[in-house]
Model the fold of this input.
Amino acid sequence: MPPPAPRLFAFDNTYVRDLENFYVRWKPTPASKPSLIRLNTSLACELGADPALLASPEGIEALAGNYPMEGAEPIAQAYAGHQFGGFSPQLGDGRALLLGEVIDANGRRQDIAFKGSGRTPFSRNGDGKCALGPALREYLVSEAMHALGIPTTRSLAVVATGDMVRRERALPGAVLTRVAASHVRIGTFEYFAAHQGPEQVKRLADYVIARHYPELVASTQPYLDLLAGVAERQALLIARWLGVGFIHGVMNTDNMTLSGETIDYGPCAFMEAYDPATVFSSIDRHGRYAYGNQADIAQWNLARLAESLLALIDTDSDQAVARATALLTAFPERVAVHWLAVMRSKLGFDESGQASEDSQLAEDFLSLLQAGKLDFTNAFRALYDAAAGNPLPLQALFGNEAGFGAWHARWLARQPNRADALLTAMRRANPWVIARNHRVEEALAEAVDRMNLAPFERLLAVLQNPFESRADDIAYTEPAPAEVTACYQTFCGT
Done:
């Protein structure tokens, strides 16, 4: 048994203490020659850790899974999931381990977990490993999403293992250390509803309420209110995804958290030319998880959560179904409310206008983008530039585009005088730069094939400041050539 690593985190592990039999205790597979690829020093400080200690030889060994961390209690969590609509009764952490929990500098409880640390009892036929490319992709995109202000899991570190993993070809392996408000998913509820019944579902629901929805502890209908709370957070999350053109790519129920955070950055991508049918995932052959379908899929996933909670919502099954159905039926309206708020910010509007008229203005602008095959991010940023006194980018983008002049006049009439606070909000709603798919792929290819991390570091630095325009970084705002986007695919990386 190797000696424990230095005390890296002040662990306090409620999931292990409170939910016995909801997991399997397990140990990571040792790495042959670990080396630190990337450490998120600011996040380390938020977690109460010493970045220098994490980057030390002992810290790197611990982040590779070679040395047990003091206070950590590594477990593989059990969960099920609907994958592309089909139910898989047992999935679980096949290549991940939850090490434990810490209270961060803001008083929030956070999970610290490994991804790619080897086989577990839930691995099925997989090797439990992660290639360096997918680990760096998750680091890059999750931190980009955080900088955009979108609820997300985050990445603390990427450590190369020194071992190769076999995919289509041999690739360098890595372990990603992920941080999350928790890793409880809709699929977690599905697993215990399917295998162990209402009592275990109640234990899980009570745990989630105490951890994520403490305001519901005294509720007279806590489990219906839990469903409502999760639905509200998901409605807001989806609206924010739509606001930046983000496509998750694999919205299975095991990838939908009860905390309302974005999780799993495998086949994710950002839309460039606006088209609601946009899909990039290689495994989404029928567009189930296309950009424009994400709100509907979230509602479908929430229905699976509701099914798991029915016995707790009401002892009368008909009443339970009726109450859950009424709540879920209102979900599209909640998404629409949040989407309108996002779009008002993007268009530079306050809340004084008629909701129906503002929604129509937003929809009409999107129709113009779709008809002209115009870049979603750049078009909205050009709109901000025009509001801030520089109409040239907007004029250059639309030119004599049919219908734009009439729309532009309506837009100007809706909010003719924008106060500084409104312009600031508009700028914060319209990023100057996003994680362009071709830029991500270029950076990952350099890192994996040539161990050249300079493009990755440069792109990461750009994405961590997405709202300020900078002349030196203008190339990062340019869409990929149409022929590149037309054949672009993302993969789950497993």
Notes: The mean pLDDT is 95. Residues 218-494 form one domain. The longest strand covers residues 154-166. The radius of gyration is 23 Å.
